[in-house]
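[audit] Reproducing an earlier prediction to check determinism. Same input, same settings, fresh worker. If the tokens differ from the archived copy the diff job will pick it up downstream; this log only records the rerun itself.
[audit] input (539 residues):
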Amino acid sequence: MAERFGYSPGYVSQLRHQFRHGKIDFSEPVAEGKAARYKISVTARQKIIEWRQKLLSAGEIAELLAHEGSDVSVRTVERVLAEEGFPRLPRRTQLKIGRTVKGALVPARAESASLAKLEGQRMESAGAGVFLFAPFLAQFGLSEVIKKAKLPESKYISAQSYFLSFLALKLLGTERYAHVGEHAFDPGLGLFAGLNVLPKCTALSTYSYSLDQAHITRLQGAFVSQASRLGLYDGSIVNLDFHTVPHFGDESVLEEHWAGARNKRMKGVLTLFAQDAQSKLILYTAADIQRQEADDQVLAFLPFWQRVCRGVSTTFIFDSKFTTYSNLAELDHQGIRFITLRRRGQKILDQVEKLELWKRISIPHEKRKYPNPSVHESTVELRGYEGRLRQIIVRGNGREKPAFLITNDFETPVELLVGNYARRWRVENGIAEAVKFFHLNALSSPILIKVHFDLVMTMIADTLYWRLAQNLRGFENCDAPKLFRNFVRGQGIVEVEDSQLTVTYPRRAHNPILRAVPWQHLPSSLPWLGGAKLTMQFK
């Protein structure tokens, strides 16, 4: 046989051995100049067919086979699919596949959440602390506030859910709306807003710019009116101040305003804050104020405050450049008392040295560095103001030059007038906290939010933190950053069972204070989640 076919006897014996043991391949030999094809087993071929029926690409199928120990190339998988009659998949972007360019998962599209579909689920949430504010939101009558504001909504997301999404980010102190992606995979935060997940940053930006001035004004008015009914505002003294929100981008449409924090004039958006002096709560905001409109903002605020706080005798306190003397006359005509500073020149300062009958007073403030300044009282007439004003010159108060207080209040003792004006710094502290913790929109973020809407959301978040503080024994006077560090920040477990939400917080040092809060006297039903009952547990 070897001689007939031109083989050696030893090679024929080797072929005989291979045949007996099934080691001879009887398939058609590879043509000269072509590479041999990788053999695919029947089991591997069946898996490739099943995975392609699930619309997996050749690369994904090759990865799955590699995890199972089969080293198959993408080209081999494509050949098998072609032999089985599968067409090539159309080219898809990473986003359509469900991943970002770097391979991270893409969050689900935000839509209304159904507790029935979430029945029995247990979710870990890094922002579970926002549920501490849910009883206070229910107490404010959130649904009624949103209804009065007539906020718009989309096909998939309601107005309440949009509102709560913004509020959740404010309560967590998220620095920029461009950082919303950090919370995009948190189902607990989404459930707080009545959604599966929070909307993406672009959706939030687009929604904020869909709100016109009427929407924002109605939202602010409805919330402040409800807070006033709950007795949160004392209303006897209101501090007013301007604040410039800086801008570092396209500045063609913005004016220059004085930015006190930077001690210079710069392009930005001029905003107004009104603060209740007793509770230190922000109760009014205005934005996009032009330079020629600034002097009249106190008159624009007046009808709003008169509607909210009816029958309360109020004193407005502001600095010397806040408005004009003619507007002071209009405030006096409306029955509003005010305390402000007189604009002083060198001629007025020279006359101070000639004055006599100075009186030393005591300002009742335990932390005041100069509690016993000297004052001189008189009445003056100013150009543009009809009538006379009470003037109080204050020196020995830690300033190099004396201060000239003017007011239309001739009845209040001088000690209270000077002390009330001295506490005007509270509104500046409130603005500083809004910028530092609530990250008042600096307009430098790549994802922009309408400034006035951002102001209103800051006001609401600040009020909620104040409500929480009033229920924490020993922390009633703490600011929002400290409350966030000690009570709000941290993970928690959110469970849904029998249409009831149970939020469990891990063991922390301040949990006994949270357990002592009278939660039983606060609303436990959440209207924006279909009336679901909320239960909070502190280990």
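[audit] rerun output stored. Observation attached for the diff report: The chain has a mean pLDDT of 85.
[audit] end
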